[in-house]
Records
---
Amino acid sequence: MKESKYTDDRITQLQSYLERLAQGESLDSVRTDFVQHFQTVEPTEIMKAEQELMRRGTPLTTVQKLCDLHSALFHGSTCTEQAAARPAAPAPSPAAAGPAVSPSTGLAYTDREEAARHLAGLTGHPLRMFSQENRALELLLKQAQKAITNLAVTPELLIRLRDIAIHYAKKGDLLYPLLKVNYGITGPSDVMWTVDDEIRDELSRLIKAQLQDESWYDQLGRVLKRAGEMIYKEDNILLPICAVTFTEQEWYGIYHDAKDYDCAFCLPREVWPAAEAAAETATAAAPQPAPAAPLTADSEIYMPGGHMTVAQLTALLNTLPLEISFVDADNINRFFNEGHKVFKRPHMAIDREVFSCHPPKIEPMVRRIIDSFRAGTRDKVPVWMERNGRSMLVTYMAVRDRNHNYVGTMELIQDMEFAKEHFQAVNAARPLQTNPQDLY
């Protein structure tokens, strides 16, 4: 019997398998029962089973911790894997697909795997980008595993593995929030995003480690195994769901926002002609300002401190050596200045709630900061951190009007490497102090 549509009974049964894993039962034992009852499993069924676990009280941290086991349980049984093993079938016409139709491909929702394969075949399409990065990462992980076995991991290999962070950043900024905010699909952002961060942080720690002993190699092997399991969950759960969920316009937005990110795994950046043409058409067809309230680059904006044109103000904000974000009093992203950013800010995030743009482990901190600004208990929160080997200062500031009413939050990000280099040079040039009195 081949199941093609998920039901409540199937979700409940899948949930029982996940609960058994959570209780410590071995993967082999649970999988034996699973394969007896399921020939195939839909990506959405896996996601719904995880969401049901959390709805019934299983801590999110437990589900996140078992993420790798969950994917291992379903290896070989997803519709996506089985579809990849058989010849491609002709896509059904939109008219024949029934009411549950992908807004981006016209394919029926039960054809998730076909939709993903179709989009992955379009040159320049974002889903193709994610898929190609996974294929490149698979090859890199095989090389790394061989090097680990031979205790011969090189610095060059570690540098290439760092690109995992680029791949995960694009997922976290471009896919997870869109699924959660626009479609109420919370599973990927709640579970996979945190696992992404754990893999990235652990890998970063190991790359920085000075001692590469037997324990180091063992830890590296484990984290790269988790990265391999995440590839599986992307290919068989995340990307098929995105394929039948996102509209063509949303894919266009993902494509253009992805340009702000570095290429991962030395893959060339492809052009998606349809997205480029759509952008040109949108620009040409953009509605002109109403005569009663014209606003152009030459329009003057008057402020208490003076007046500037829109073009001047835009250039000024883009010239500041800071990454600037403004969130209004309703917690909605309203403005990002332009230019290269260490902390990426997709244009799609404008008019979206700020909390959706942060991974689960960071969201509570952001909420506390903004709540304290709104309550008036704090006006500024500085956070120092290392990013890509550079010292960064992230400053959150309450924005208030002349009557001290809270109107929003500003986030300023500044690369402080110049200051560190300055004081290192000053200290290096300073003569050695032998008398404590010389310090005063």
---
Amino acid sequence: MKSRQYSLQKRITYHIIRFLRWFVPGIGIKRWGLLVISGSMMIGLGFAVLVLDVYRNTPDTWYLPILAFLSLRFLSRPIRALIFGLGGIFMIVVGIWGINRTLLKPFLRPGKHLVDTVSQYQKLDKGKRIVVIGGGTGLSALLRGLKKHTANITAIVTVADDGGSSGELRRNIGILPPGDIRSCLAALSNDEELTTQLFQYRFGEGAGLNGHALGNLLITALTDITGSFEEAIAESGRVLAVQGKVLPSTLHDVRLVAQVQLPDSTKELKIRGESDIPRKGGKVKRVWLEPNNPLAYPPTLQAILSADIIIVGPGSLYTSIIPNLLVPDITEAIRVSRGLKFYVCNVATQPGETEGYSCGDHVKTIEAIIDKGLFDVVICNDNCNGKLPTDIEFVCLDEDLDKEYPVYSANLSDSEAPWRHDSTKLASAILDLYNERTGPIGREMSSEL
């Protein structure tokens, strides 16, 4: 018997606590609840005046005693007011709960309470405006970490890709390459389960679809249906319930061209095409776009100029990051933006692009295109332990790099794949730095004080 009573008390306490969570600051419920209660009070006051008028002016008939009983006139006025007030509040709460439950039912996820869903949405909606410029698996990993902190994320990717499925669609159909855009949309999806896996699914070569990713085909089809590549990206984002935006750096059909010094030779070769640059295995001396000086996509510039945080990297240095910075308007927008600017260095080198590069080499390569000293913080991984695949090595931190740049170094590598960033660690480090709780920004401000 005692165990049953304890169980009942526990359940009642649980439901009371769960109800009170609706009044936690920041959810945006209290203000609208107060408005509903005030409106209900006005309606109730008007109805009470009408009932009182009927009660006072109606002749003494058989139903008058019934009306007197229903009005609880045998009780004192304070008690009557309390009973009617509590009853009204109960009916309002149940009614609002039922309406919200019905309206929000399509958006509820299994195993997650309605309060948690609303609270998480409000928290992310008020998050910092973050712009990330990069590409490949590095950018996707960072986006997966950032989306836990904010919904105001904009990923800017290059359209110079000409390899694999994207390159084939580009050559045969004339569409801008959707590969990096597809990966970013999948990373920002609210539900990285079946729908996202389907979006990332790649057909086998023997299926007659030449190894195309389903997401690439979907974006291509939506481009044809909507008549606009950018509208196709937006529609794909709605399908995946994307938390943020993915924007191309430019809508011009550009090609990446590199001047490469061949291995064990002084001979330099001009290579056209992003996918061919790493295959030559030489030292990249210079890269540029053809046609030169393409116009940036206007919403991309707007996102950069209004950002609280601008993150360059991670991603392939010459084929993912720099092609975005070769769009002059983007470089200028980064320069004039008031957002805090980070450069995130890759954890490991990339064959054909950055063999033997240190963190400082990455930074200097980028600053050969944009102004020196542009980055507020350079973020490097300092965990160089773990087994790496063949032909790659850890990107190490230069001993004197912190004399030239504000540097933040920490263990940011994935324990299972040490050549990649851990999305949670990297995103948390960036947000901590922005909030001036750790790293060189906080130390500089402390020294000034």
---
Amino acid sequence: MHELSIAQAILDVASHHARGRRVAKVEVRVGHLRQVVPDSLDFAFSLLTPDTALEGCRLEITPVPAVGRCRACGAESPLECFPLSCLRCGGFDVHVLAGEELLVDALELEEEPLTNERVGHGSHV
């Protein structure tokens, strides 16, 4: 379950940028080619956040569809399954334009800083 390591990385990034403030929401963009199961990522995230600045935080996952440009015919098309191929000509020489993202896009923070007792693991305060 690679979602657990992804959830830990999200927690680390959010905790670092929160600088001691409680995080109410984390917005994440996940590309289709990352093969992340959103429910598994949400579950893993909920396992890691107790006793941290992200306890009770909402994880908002926005899926990003895979899109590619064929180097043979120049067509842009969705890349829905493996092997990645052009929908127009069937060629396999495709340059991926979108779908590999794994980004913490935004944080919703509360104004009041947490006390040191409420800042747990993953925090860089």
---
Amino acid sequence: MKPRLETTFKAISNGDVTLRVATAGSGPLVLFVHGWPELWYSWRDQLAAFAGRGYSVAALDVRGYGGSSKPEAISAYTMRELTSDVVAVARALSHEPVILVGHDWGAPIVYHTALLAPEQVRAVAGLSVPYMPSSEVMILDVFRQIYAGRFFYQLYFQEEGPIEAELEADVAAALRKIYFGASGSAPAGVFSDKPEGATFLEGMIDPDPLPAWLRAEDIEVYAEAFSAGGFRGPINRYRAQPIDHEELSELRGASLPMPVCFIGGEKDPVRRFIPGLDLYTAGAAGAACEDFRGVTVIPGAGHWIQQEAPEATNDALAAFFAGL
């Protein structure tokens, strides 16, 4: 039986931005940061589990999502802005350095929080996206080279308007397709193997029935939030990457000094984003970490590992926390 989750929601300010934060438990703080297109709710199983294991736990709606502020400007979604939100929440909830856990875009956000404010960070767990320091070549230019003549979603997301319209035409259906398509339940290639000129949702499966890990009531929670708030803010994170490349030039090649672990799903499409390279090996995921505590690859799971395989994810996190 899963532990019952009883949360208290707090509004925490970072300048003009207000962040909705779910909190529970007492003890050392573990702060969870979600990715795209998710919410604090993505961490419901982790919040319940670790609140019951002697930790204070918190999960924010990242700016642009859910109950948090949704600025219009692309420049509001740079890594520097998003990490400042994480620091504001950490400082508001803890007098001591905190453990950060990030999934999808949340992983780069917590890695960069650790680089920009190391005094606030005790340790970092990254899920689905390993830490890879930036280089002289902007990551979008790398993707343009790798995916020349083929569809790649991050490049498709750069134009303002088309992706928002595509997703907002039927929010619940779009979310079902995205969650299924990048999960371990989907056939390989459904999420990413498309020709140049395709749209994002083209060829993606609307699952019926839903896979066992994804309930109709979960879709309702996400669909309500994105129907109310739209997708512009969340998509702007992808568009802010060129700004990051200029603003964070001092971090090129930087390593993470604190304890770091990585957890990924065996069938996650991110694992093969760079053809010929398995990003989920210790040599890849830990190459720029000074105190790397290892990789856990969860069999059968895809991109949404903390929701697809909550017990295995929690076991990996608990083992990491126990060694700190």
